[in-house]
Structure formats: C-alpha cells, structure tokens
Design a protein that fits this description.
The chain is of the alpha+beta class. The protein has two helices and seven strands. The chain has helices at 44-65, 151-166, and strands spanning 82-85, 89-94, 97-102, 105-109, 116-121, 127-133, 139-145. It is elongated, with a radius of gyration of 30 Å.
Length: 182
C-alpha cells in the first residue's frame, strides 16, 4: 500500500494565487525574457499597434507605482496626553482619541466613537486594565503591567485629565435659569 506524506489536496488555481486568472486585471505574461529582441516577422503596422496596446496597458500601473504624497501630520495641540506601556501592551490617549496596541495588533478610537472609558486595577499584582466601550455595546479591554502599584494612582490621574479635556459624555450641564428683572 502506498502512503503519501503531506497534504492530499490539489493546489488551487484562481485569482487568489494567480492574478492573471482574471482577464484584464494584468497584461498577459509572455514566456520570453524582457531583454529579448522581438523577431522581425510582421509588417510595421502590427508592431506599432502592439506597442501602443502595451503602452496603454502599462499606463495605469505606472501611475499606481508613483508614491503619493503623505498628508502632513497635524500638529498636536498643547493638551494632556496619557501613555502607559509594558513589554507587550500600550495605551495612548490624546487629542485624537484612544489607541490600544497589544503585540502586533492595534486599534484606534476617535473621541466620537468612544462611549465610555473604564479603568480597573488588580487586587493583587500590578495589572492596570483600561476598557474602551463603544456606543454599539462592544468593549475593548487591555492590560498593562506596571513596574509598581504606586503607578496606578499616577496613571488614573493622567487618564482623568485627558478624559476631562477631550471626552464629551453627551450629558449637557443644565443652564442656569434666567432671571427677569421686571
């Protein structure tokens, strides 16, 4: 009896593997190397048509290859910034919103996307948890390990300062009643 080592599935063919599978997506690839000279086998008109077709097929790609100008980063206003990080996790809250990152995963929330920000400290240990809640009832927790438990109060104060400056919780303070002096 014959046994095979490895996968028994056949390789896939299609656009996921070969972009030339979809007609018109890229120009067909010839088996000739690029530096090979074309043979002189046809009339001059056929060569000119082929050259114009190749040029028109290459034009969109040439435009795409040009690097686009990067938008200028807006200057950060002089406001409070909260930043906490350890070897794996990082939390940044500033004028643009809240950014969470863990290893190679990142997410960013603008202030209009944030429903609430909750903090929690571990009873034992040195873990500081920040949870970002969104209006659509989703939450995104991240834990940062502090070098000492004394950092918790410092981080809480910094985060409160940022939230007070940038986060609008939707509650309008009642206006003082107007007095009529009649």
């Amino acid at each position: 009896m014959e046994q095979r080592i490895g996968s028994s599935s056949q390789p896939l063919e299609g656009a996921g593997i070969d972009p030339a599978f979809i007609p018109g997506l890229i120009s067909p690839v010839s088996g000739e190397p690029e530096d090979a000279k074309p043979e002189d086998t046809g009339p001059e008109e056929v060569k000119q048509e082929a050259a114009s077709e190749e040029k028109s097929a290459e034009e969109p790609w040439e435009k795409a290859e040009e690097p686009e100008e990067e938008p200028e980063k807006e200057s950060a206003p002089d406001g409070p910034v909260f930043e906490a990080s350890d070897r794996r996790a990082r939390i940044v809250a500033d004028h643009s919103g809240v950014r969470l990152s863990l290893d190679d995963q990142e997410c960013e929330f603008r202030w209009d996307e944030v429903g609430a920000v909750e903090t929690e400290t571990a009873r034992f240990g040195k873990r500081f948890t920040v949870t970002v809640h969104t209006p659509d009832r989703r939450w995104y927790p991240i834990e940062v390990e502090a070098d000492s438990r004394a950092r918790f109060s410092e981080w809480e104060a910094q985060l409160d300062e940022v939230l007070d400056a940038y986060f609008e919780d939707g509650e309008e303070e009642p206006a003082a009643p107007e007095k009529d002096d009649d």
